[in-house]
# Entry
Amino acid sequence: MSEINNNYEKSITVNGLTKRFDEFTAVDNISFEVKRGEIFGFLGPNGSGKSTTIRMLCGILEPSGGNASVLGIDVAAHPEEIKQHIGYMSQKFSLYDDLTVIENLDFYGGVYGLKNDRLAKRKDFVLEMAGLKGREHELAANLSTGWKQRLALGCAIIHEPEMVFLDEPTGGVDPVSRRNFWEMLYHMAESGTTLFVTTHYMDEAEHCHRIGFIYQGKMIALGTPDQLKQQNMKGDIIEVAIDTSQEALQAVAGAPGVDEAYFYGATIHAKVDSVKRDVQAIEKYLKGLKFKGFSIRAVQPSLEDVFVNLIQDIR
Amino acid sequence: MHKPIIEIENLIVDFPGVRAVDGISIKVGEGEIFGLVGPDGAGKTTTIRVLSTILKPALGSVKIWGNDIVLNPRSVRGKIGYMSQKFNLYGDLTVEENLRFFADIYGLSDDERAKRTKELLHFARLENFTDRRAEFLSGGMKQKLALACTLIYEPKILFLDEPTTGVDPVSRREFWAILSELRSRGVTLFVSTPYMDEAERCSTVAFMDGGKIRICDSPRSIKASFSGEIVELTAKPQHEARRIIGGLSYVRDVEVYGERLQLTVARAAEAVERLKQDLSGKVELASVAIKNPTMESAFIELIKEGTGVQGMII
# Structure
């Protein structure tokens, strides 16, 4: 895209962005930046303001307050221009089921005004990248969810945007497709494309370079996954490999030094003030309750631990 | 396994043009938390609808407590509960009124209703919200109210279709604590979920895709089946580290997790030492550590190995 102002330093700059619907404030004074070539994960439960924010950044919805620019373009002043320069992939994969793979690409290429050589080149690139060569003439309706997802991404980037918004892109795909999809995103980021990804999967957020966590319209944390774990966790997390009975959970929750205990996979995790200080006492306490054959070890907090901690502080 | 309470044999469900459930067989023991994991469109919801007697299958048999529920759905109604993905709460009724409505439908007496309502409000951690209209509850609270409504007549088996999808992490934890409490009271739970970490909390997990069950076992056995070990490292510049690691014979697979790289190797301890050598002087190795394999790693390996599954993977 030649006409774009290439002097922008940040792919996204957001300052005090707010959206009100009548009495309800969906997005409440949020600020953040996204660097070029970064994969930024925008996390939050359903209804927290994720989609509203994306829609403002894509120039679809007018902000009620604050400002935001994408690729150096102000979203409120030039919403139409923004749409030309970004790619958008929604969780619903807006594909035409009754068109073939290549016809879908032709259609989206046409929407963005690509013609002749350039269209041919871009289609070729996208087919290659998405591994869709050899499937050009299959109907979109007949593709599995994993393949549909790749085609949807291909359509979203047919015009070679510098910035792509992905709204819950991997919602319902199998783990193998999900892994391959992330592989594609990394390749795009390495070649300089900026990616803004929303998700409510905590494990998926670990894939992102940086994360913003939005809750009830407010940005409650911002940083790399490692930073968030180091800065926002008070105390330590231990893993007790015991069993997943209610009795075991209650026993761990009642042990000395334990703030909170919860099931984590097939084990129980507990938040303690200090691993060093508390582990022996907990072991002794559980043995006193006739639990046998269990083990305790310190574990790195997960992103979920971090967000639970942050949310509990707010409530 | 305890004695099977649910027995599904060769279940097939067809919709116009699609075979949604393609010949699955599952046994669920009494007192289990049985997890059905899989992507959208795998057939999870359809399976749960058949089990809750809402949908008739094309073929196959489903027995609950030994009763054939396809031939005789009435034999289990009132003893099983079903919570759908989009539960029909009445938005303009309060929390308490919703419970009252469901109590009336199931014909509870006034005394019974009062007693159960009080219990369930406590159980679902909703005591402080009894007068709030359902439409003004958060996603997590709505799910808890929906569960409470399902529990009003004390079903012995509960079918839950993606009960925690999209709810905030605190509510998700609370919801699972509630499920565990139900299990300790002897309720058998059959839960579908797209979250791998939730699958790990179940006593048995079935991975469903394309209408078929690909894997069905305990989380422990599934993880134990993973043939490799995992090493995680951070190195700068990452793309250079990736390039070098890609050429190392003892590394089977590399996956990027933001700033970190996750490697599958045969023996982690040995690989850590060799990596330190192979990367030294070429990239800056910030950290390297051995990690436990996740359920997802094991699933991916099993799916890739599985016969007749190639069509579904990339």
